[in-house]
Amino acid sequence: MTDVLELVDVSVVRGGTHLVDQVTWSVAEGERWVIVGPNGAGKTTLLQIASTYLFPTNGTAAVLGEKLGSVDVFELRPRVGMASAALTERLPRREKVLDIVLTAAYGMTATWHERYDESDEDRALFLLDQLGMAAFAERRFGTLSEGERKRVQIARSLMTDPELLLLDEPAAGLDLGGREDLVRRLGRLAADPYAPAMVMVSHHVEEIPTGFTHVLMLRQGKVLAAGPIEDTLTSRNLSLCFGLPLVVKQRDERWSARGLPLHA
Ligand SMILES: Nc1ncnc2c1ncn2[C@@H]1O[C@H](COP(=O)(O)OP(=O)(O)OP(=O)(O)O)[C@@H](O)[C@H]1O
What we know:
Elements: E1 3-14, E2 17-28, E3 32-36, H1 43-50, E4 58-63, E5 66-67, H2 73-76, E6 80-83, H3 85-90, H4 97-102, H5 118-130, H6 146-157, E7 164-168, H7 176-191, E8 197-201, E9 214-219, E10 222-228, H8 229-232, H9 235-242, E11 246-251, E12 254-259
Parallel strand pairs: 3-8, 3-9, 6-7, 7-8
Antiparallel strand pairs: 1-2, 1-4, 4-5, 9-10, 11-12
The structure holds adenosine-5'-triphosphate.
GO molecular function: ATP binding; ATP hydrolysis activity
Protein name: ABC transporter ATP-binding protein
Domain ABC transporter: 5-245
């Protein structure tokens, strides 16, 4: 299997602070990774590197086999799909849902005056349908609920048929029903052998969809543990990661975690 992402000794330093610190990590084709870690651990910073929007201060990062710093990132970007709250914010609320997805084919956030092929439109509708949003195609993006907007963003991130899909906290802010619906859909995507390699940042192990194969655990910018999820997402590692005693369980291919009760 080829690596779609390869970081070697990567550090990002800002104002003397290490946002990520000597991270060595690779993602191979077909793998589905979740990144967990406390607030400020460097999760989003790693996704920014993977999406080619941030270059390491030290170390080397290769995305889809191309080393950052010696490749035209504008050619690379359409091959990487990304969904995040920050990107959702930048999408025009007055735009039609279908156009929000369609514009991704051209790396734009508004329709201007491009013309789209019928095949582009078919693909956008197909992706909206996969995310359960086909009925909303003609609605204005700004009229959608937060959960619906997130699903549209994921459809959009798949529009260019990327080889790597990055999801930054896709379930953040969703209610229980919205979370479960999204987790189920992401589980279906993870199980699709034609789907791209996936990396998802999450704050909660309950949000890890079925079919996710690997976990990267970060603490204070450093890798605490990385590897196959069954062996790596242990109570011990999760407790070290979050700095308090936690018990993690897996049941019916879903994960849950809770703190140990305090004793007086
Ligand atoms: N330009 C900057 N200068 C200094 N520190 C920064 C800068 N950008 C980010 N940081 C810090 O880097 C650390 C890592 O940030 P990052 O957003 O990657 O963490 P995260 O794990 O995604 O956090 P969260 O779970 O809260 O979203 C944070 O402590 C943040 O305050």
